[in-house]
Automatic annotation (TrEMBL):
Any one Gene Ontology BP term: cilium movement
Species the sequence originates in: Ursus americanus
Keywords: Repeat, TPR repeat
Gene Ontology CC terms: extracellular exosome; motile cilium
UniProt lineage: Eukaryota, Metazoa, Chordata, Craniata, Vertebrata
Protein name: Cilia and flagella associated protein 70
Superkingdom of origin: Eukaryota
Amino acid sequence: MEQVSSTGRPVQITVTDGYDLKGFKGDTPVTFIRAEFNQVVLGDSAKVTVSPEGTAKYNFTSSFEYNPEGGITLDDLAHKPVFLTMTEVLPKEKKQKDEKTLILGQAVVDLLPLLEGESSFERTVPLHPVPGSPLEPLRSGVKQCSLAVKVFVAEPLLTTAQILGGNLLKVTLEAAYSVPESFIPVGPMQNYMVGLQVPSVGEKDYPILFKNGTLKLGGEREPVPRPKKWPIANILAPGANNIPDTFIIGGPYEEEEGELNHPEVRELCSFLVIN
C-alpha cells in the first residue's frame, strides 16, 4: 500500500474492563495487563483486584507511534497484532522480599480496521489461557474470559482516495500435502516454516513467511473449519495466535502427484525446519 507522508501519529490502545476472570490464588486475585506491539513493551497497567464476580476495571491506556518515514509502517499494522498479557501478582509469604507473579493468559487486538479508514473501534477480545492457567474452562458452557478494548487515532491514517487506490494483499497458506519422506520428524516434534516471494513491479520481491506449521503423520489432515493464525512466533498462550473471526473452511483439493520435487512447486515456496 502507498505510504502516507506525515509525521508520527500516536495509536492508543485502552483496556477498560476484564470479564469472567480467575486467578491461581483466592477468589479476588490482583492482576495487571502488559501491552506489547512489534516486540516492544508499551507499558504495564496498575495492579487491579478482581471482584468476586470476576470483573476488573483497568482503564489502562498505552500507545505507540505510527510513522511510515521510519518506525512503525502500514505493513506492521496489517500483519502484527497488539498483545495484551494478563499477569497475577501472588500474595507475599513470610520473609519473602520480592513479589512473585504468574502469567494467566494473552489477548490479541487486530489493527487492520485502521487501514480500512477507521479512526476508532471497540472490541471485546477473548483472553486465551496459558497452559495450566485457571482461566482454562474446566467444563463446557463456562464463559471465556475476555477484555474490553478501545483503539483510537486522532485522525484516519489513510484518506478515502488512498484506500480506494491502494492494494491490501492477503495470503493464506492452508496446508501442504505429500511432503517428502525426509520431512518426517525423528525424536521430538518439529515445527515448520514456509516462505514464498511476492512479485512487486519495479521493486524487489517481498518475502512472506508462515511460521508455526506442524507436520502431521500418516496422512492426518487438519480439521475444518479451523482458525487462521498469525505468522508470529513466541506466543505464550496457544489460542492467542488465532486471528479473530477468520477461519479456513476447506474445499476441494487436487491430490499432489508425488513429492514436492516439481520445478513449479520449487519456485513457489520453500520449507525451513525449526527445532
